Structures are given as structure tokens and as C-alpha cells.
Amino acid sequence: MGTADSDIVFQSYGRCCNNEQFFVDFYDRFMGSSDEVRALFVDTDMKQQRHLLRNGIMQLVMHARGMPDSKLRALGQSHSRNGYNIRPEWYRLWLDALLDTLRQHDGEFSAEVESAWRRAILPGIELIRDAY
Ligand code: HEM
User: Fold this and answer.
1) Which of 19, 58, 95, 119 is the least crowded, having the fewest Cβ atoms under 10 Å away?
2) What positions does the domain Globin occupy (predicted)?
């Protein structure tokens, strides 16, 4: 992953992340992708969850820019079988929902921007998923 990818991703996220609707649309898609995923959030305060996810995605982006692993390791623990019990296969739905929402909201989205996102955040997603 080159610095160029993380710059593209940082700018793409900057065009999206100040709009609350981005996170509303993300969770509508993500929960719409599976009844099991929807069930995980029945008791969740979604306004707060949107705020937490805004930071969580930023952690993935910062990881791509060389930040230490500690924040992602903590997410790995909270999402593991000892925590929310988030099954590894659900991370694909999460990434698909994120990319579809970026495509909807980022006016400069392109195949290049999509590839940059995939390359930049996959290692961080795998770190969280593999803590299962
Ligand atoms: C909570 C980020 C993937 C379900 C959280 C929190 C963050 C976060 C920042 C709040 C902090 C915490 O409780 O540890 C992420 C990131 C993901 C990801 C960056 C992608 C790598 C997933 C997936 C699922 C999921 C795939 C479900 C299929 C949940 C649930 C909570 C949560 C159920 C707790 C909600 C509550 O407090 O009621 N996530 N998450 N997450 N996440 Fe994730």
C-alpha cells in the first residue's frame, strides 16, 4: 500500500464523513444486507453508533498511514467471539456496504478511488476480523 492510496482515501473520506447522512445510509445498507446483522443492532443507540463508526473508519484509514495497531486491536477484542461475536464472514458485507455508500456520497468516486480504499483498509479489517 503506497502513500498515494492513503492520500486518495483520506480525501475521499473527507468528502463524506462530515455528512451524518453518509452513516445513516451506511447502516441502512449494512443492516439491509442480512437479518442476522440487523438483529445485532436492535438495542443499539444508532445516533451514538454512527458517531463511533465515524471514528472507527478513521482508525482504519490512520492504520493505513502507519498509525500503531492498538485501537484496531481493541476493536478486534470487542468484536471477537468473547465480545459481540461478529462472525468473520460478516466483514465482507460491511466492506460492500461501505464501498456502496462511498460510491453514493463521494462525488469524485471512481474505480481508482475504490481500489485505493480496498488496498488501504483491508489490512486493518483483517486485523479486527482475525481476532475472532
Ligand atoms: C461496535 C467499528 C465491523 C457489529 C463498534 C464500535 C466501533 C465499530 C468503533 C464501537 C466501539 C466498540 O464497541 O468497540 C467497526 C469497524 C468494523 C466493524 C471499523 C470493520 C472492520 C462490524 C461488523 C459487525 C459489527 C462486521 C456485525 C456484523 C458491531 C456491534 C457493535 C459494534 C453489534 C456494538 C453495538 C452496540 O453497542 O450496541 N464497531 N465495526 N461491527 N459493532 Fe462494529
Assistant:
1) 19
2) 1-132
- Residue extents of the structural domains in the chain: 3-129
Quote the cell numbers at residue 68: 500503531
Q: What is the CATH number of domain 3-129?
A: 1.10.490.10
Contact 82, 112 (CB under 8 A): no
Ligand 1 atom closest to the CA of 59, numbered from 1 = 19
| 64 touches 5 (CB < 8 A) | yes
**Chain-wide mean pLDDT for the chain?**
96
Q: 95 is written with which cell numbers? A: 466492506
Residues enclosing ligand 1, CB less than 6 A? 37, 40-41, 43-44, 49, 52-53, 56-57, 60, 75, 78-79, 84, 86, 90-91, 94, 125, 128
- Take atom 34 of ligand 1 and give the residue whose Cα is closest: 84
pLDDT tens-digit readout, 88-116: 999 999 999 999 999 999 999 999 999 99
